[in-house]
Design the sequence.
């Protein structure tokens, strides 16, 4: 079990990334050898090339990627499947998260945003924007999509803190919570089979039945991943974005509220440059000897693809536009991955962030931090990190 030294934490937009370079030997957090890949083209290759997979990371003789059990390293998770097994699972959800589907959701997402802003406006100042906005918004959105009741919403953060544990929780504690969470997911699938509705889980059940032969454990992991992944990353992005915008880029705040397209470009830049946590790489396993960036990575090697460094590669993203929040990205961001494992919820996350920032700025053009950014208390214990509380005035 590890602990986090809060005194060493800096805002995620201030994290230092080494200059991207050729693939080089490194090591996993536990000390096992790995290859580090950091240039944009190299990272994109590793994430897109089927010779670099996820499933073999969980072979019996593979080095451990985590000290404690967690949802991210569950071999049944869709993200940890490769080839036909991965594609069969992905097909059950692919239609649900297309840009066209998400566009149909914009009106009711915007309505949830406005309801939360009405409530915020009535709160005494300073108000905690995390409690009033950055947490309840994505929880409400994923709850509506999945048809979750109030009891599930109340447990969501508890499940997330253990599903994405950074090792701060004991293995026994994480295992117990994930067992409870898995039982919830299994029960939810059973309920939707018995009484289907128009929610995401019901459509998943229908698609899985059409696909046929999908292991129940994989479907349960898929449901659980949607519950926690569907709100945790958006909450984290929104909290960190507000800390950066209000603390260091206040001159940009009015434009975000005045121009929804500009808010979309700012959302893209923020997703691109502000990581979700302190981890520096997403792992892959090399099935065969493969050349990446002029270096041969040997078969059997674990490769850490550093998306944060790649997103700052000056060969692709010039330094003179890096801090321009309203400049279109020069190339697709790697914050959502690439290739077969590209994040299915990317368009939903981007849409939520755009609407949230635009409507919040339009309603509160004078929004400002109530305390210095350096005084922020961080939410820790998980692989993502964002302010635990963020006091604001308007």
Sequence:
């Amino acid at each position: 079990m590890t602990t986090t030294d809060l005194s060493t934490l800096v805002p995620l937009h201030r994290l230092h990334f080494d200059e991207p370079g050729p693939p080089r030997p490194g090591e996993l957090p536990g000390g096992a050898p790995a290859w580090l890949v950091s240039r944009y083209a190299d990272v994109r290759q590793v994430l897109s090339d089927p010779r670099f997979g996820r499933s073999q990371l969980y072979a019996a003789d593979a080095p451990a990627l985590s000290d404690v059990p967690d949802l991210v390293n569950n071999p049944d998770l869709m993200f940890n499947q490769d080839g036909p097994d991965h594609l069969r699972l992905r097909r059950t959800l692919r239609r649900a998260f297309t840009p066209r589907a998400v566009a149909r959701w914009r009106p009711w997402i915007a309505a949830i945003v406005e309801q939360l802003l009405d409530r915020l406006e009535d709160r005494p100042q300073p108000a905690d924007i995390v409690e009033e906005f950055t947490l309840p918004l994505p929880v409400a959105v994923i709850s509506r999509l999945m048809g979750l009741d109030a009891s599930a919403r109340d447990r969501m953060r508890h499940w997330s803190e253990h599903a994405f544990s950074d090792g701060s929780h004991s293995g026994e504690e994480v295992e117990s919570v994930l067992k409870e969470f898995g039982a919830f997911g299994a029960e939810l699938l059973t309920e939707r089979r018995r009484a289907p509705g128009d929610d995401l889980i019901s459509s998943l059940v229908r698609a899985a039945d059409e696909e046929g032969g999908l292991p129940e454990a994989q479907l349960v992991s898929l449901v659980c991943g949607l519950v926690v992944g569907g709100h945790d990353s958006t909450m984290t992005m929104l909290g960190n974005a507000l800390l950066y915008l209000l603390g260091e880029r206040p001159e940009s705040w009015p434009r975000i509220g005045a121009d929804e397209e500009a808010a979309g470009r700012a959302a893209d830049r923020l997703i691109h440059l502000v990581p979700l946590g302190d981890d520096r790489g997403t792992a892959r396993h090399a099935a065969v000897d493969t050349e990446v960036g002029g270096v041969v990575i040997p078969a059997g090697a674990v490769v850490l693809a550093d998306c944060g460094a790649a997103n700052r590669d000056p060969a692709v993203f010039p330094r003179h536009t890096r801090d321009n929040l309203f400049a279109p990205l020069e190339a697709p961001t790697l914050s959502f991955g690439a290739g077969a494992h590209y994040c299915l919820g990317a368009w939903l996350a981007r849409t939520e962030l755009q609407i949230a920032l635009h409507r919040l700025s339009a309603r509160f053009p004078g929004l400002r931090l109530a305390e210095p950014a350096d005084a922020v208390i961080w939410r820790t214990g998980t692989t993502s990190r964002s302010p635990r509380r963020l006091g604001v005035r308007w």
Q: What stands out?
A: The CA atoms of residues 259 and 358 lie 8 Å apart. The two ends are 41 Å apart (CA to CA). The first helix runs from residue 40 to 48.
